[in-house]
Every structure is written in C-alpha cells, then in structure tokens.
Amino acid sequence: MEIWINPACSKCRSAVRLLDAEGAHYTVRRYLEDVPSSEEIRAVLDRLGLEPWDITRTQEADAKELGLKDWPRDTEARERWITALADHPKLIQRPIITAQDGTAVVARTDEAVRDAMGR
Fold first, then answer.
1. Burial class of 62 by CB neighbour count within 10 A (0 to 12, 13 to 18, 19+)
2. What domains appear along the chain, each with residue ranges and CATH number?
3. Catalytic residue chosen out of the listed positions 1, 2, 9, 109
4. Active site residue 9
5. Distances (CA, A) of 29 to 7, 16, 34
6. What is the pLDDT of residues 20-44, one digit of tens each?
C-alpha cells in the first residue's frame, strides 16, 4: 500500500495517523517532491476508476491560472488534464492510497482510509 501525501495537508496527516494507529504497512510518497509521471497518474486513475478532472483541485491558484474550470471534460481532453496534473502536482487531490488489491481511493475521510486498508 502506498499513500500520496502533501505533509502540509491536514487530511494527509490524519490519514497517516490512522494508518499508523491501525498498524498498516505502507510507503509514503510526497508527491510534490517525487512528482508522478503522466504514466503513473494514468495508472492511479485506472485504479481509482476516475477521470483526471475528478481528482483535480480546481480551486488552487495553478488551476485558476490554467483556466481549468473552462477545460472540456471529455475523452479528447483527458491527456491534457493528465499533463496538467503531472506538470502541476499541487493540483492532485490528496491523499490517495493505492490498495493491495490493485484499487485506489481518495482517502479524505477515516472511512475511506479504512476501506483502503481492508482491500
């Protein structure tokens, strides 16, 4: 199990505390420092069963600067969104946990973290 975190994020810190309290075995990826490639983002999206716009933090300054609010959300625009996430990792929703069964969750709640641990 791996968790993508931004240490400055309270939801990330909460998820890590819960993983520790439950004795989970996991690795931490500080995705702002160890930026995921477009390929890794595609793989996580497949595991999540989501599209890139579903995990994009659209209220971030970078998102506003890029005008993401006005970008199309369709198959043709998918790669453009993935490139934006790879180029601006701060836009990636957090934390993301990749579970042992090959799935992943956006773990913004304790329930989502427990769900990932149970997979």
1. middle
2. 2-117 (3.40.30.10)
3. 9
4. yes
5. 10, 11, 7
6. 999 999 999 999 999 999 999 999 9
